[in-house]
Amino acid sequence: MRKETFLRIILVMFLCMNLAVPPGLMGQGAKEEEPFRPEEIDQIVAPIALYPDSLLAQVLAASTYPLEIVQAARFLQQNKELKGEKLLAASKDKDWEPSVKAMLEFPDVLLMMNEKLEWTQKLGDAFLSQQKDVMVSVQRLRQKAQESGNLKTTKEQKVIVEEQTKVIIIESASPQVVYVPTYNPVVVYGVWAYPAYPPYPVYPYGYVATAGLAFAAGVAVGAAWSGHGGWGCGWGNNEVNINASKQNNFTKNNYNNPQKYQAKQNQNWQHNPQNRGGAQYKNQATAQKYGQQGSGAGARPSTSETRGYGGGAGEKGGGKPQTSDLSRGGGRENALSGSGNGGSERASSNRGQESRSSASRSSGSGASRSSGGASRSSGGSRGGGGRR
User: Which three-class secondary structure state does DSSP give residue 231?
Assistant: First the structure.
């Protein structure tokens, strides 16, 4: 009798354990997130692929620090009366990574990155884990825009096609003034090759619907306080380059402790995990690469972390929520509210697409072309940016 009772208890415990654990999880560890597919990277990169090289490189680097993007945008909103050199002087005690602090020179782009934080996070994730694929995607999209007649030299920008490699380089027409192009990524690239992955509806403030590229008032650069031009695209090796002279001059004039960011020579840009704050990396491999051993696969920062409530890098204070008035362009998105939800992201993109363009789309094939060849760095060149 006792034996039967004992066996029944064992059986009940066994059934409870199996019912409590969802099927498929027993005996298996957390799965690594799959890499971004080419069509997903094109979807993410499309809103900025036509930026001048120097600004593009800066945005790519800055996107890997989403917490600091939020803090910089908050600071910008709290100091609306300041611009240019005075704004940067007021931020001298902020220890943001240079690519983020230099975004204060391009407030419309900075606010866009903050408003579309989920997109910014994905851009940074893709760049950190698949840098080459991101750079190749930029060249693929530039070629499509050029073939569609929407990417060409204007009074605001120079479009250069390298003869041997066919790499497309975009530079500012003037080394003293830069412009941010505004465009509808659904239209500017012609027929989009991936109907299931339409471009993200990401637009800088002041965007006006147009068939091609439009430019607003430019931003004066070249002064000692300006950080623009410190980052450039090395297309031969699909990397972002640092112009040591430009960055060192910028950090010397805009940081209380600039030595942390001083570069001895021109070099490839390297992500600094210390400026990442509490934001988790996309997967275990990327986390381990940057010393965040405890990060689980697919981990994401919480809403409070992403919005900088926890006193992250560059900010002092405890967990008291701090908010900022982002009245331009409507309310703020809930941070990463749709992370990992591809369906809702695509639905959102479709809504943005339908409201901005009636252009027809078909499932034409998107030829992927490599941007390899002789390395050409535009780290010291001027890019484009716009202030409104």
Answer: strand
Q: How far apart are CA 140 and CA 207, in angstroms?
A: 24
With a threshold of 0.85, does the pTM exceed it? no
Give residue-wise pLDDT tens across range 5-28: 665 666 556 555 544 444 433 333
Contact (CB, 8 A) for 60 and 92: no
Round to whole Å and give the CA distance between 131 and 383: 20
Sequence ranges of the domains in the chain = 36-319+348-356
What six digits make up the tokens of 261? 């960011």
User: d(Cα 339, Cα 139) in Å, to the nearest integer?
Assistant: 27
Place of tokens 């690239």: 189
- How far is it, in rounded angstroms, from Cα 182 to Cα 202? 10
As a residue count, the chain comes to: 388
172 has which bridge partners?
157
pLDDT at 376 over 90: no
- Helix 131-147 with 117-129: angle, nearest 10 deg: 110
Alpha-carbon distance values, 173 to 89, 126, 131, 178 (Å) = 28, 30, 27, 8
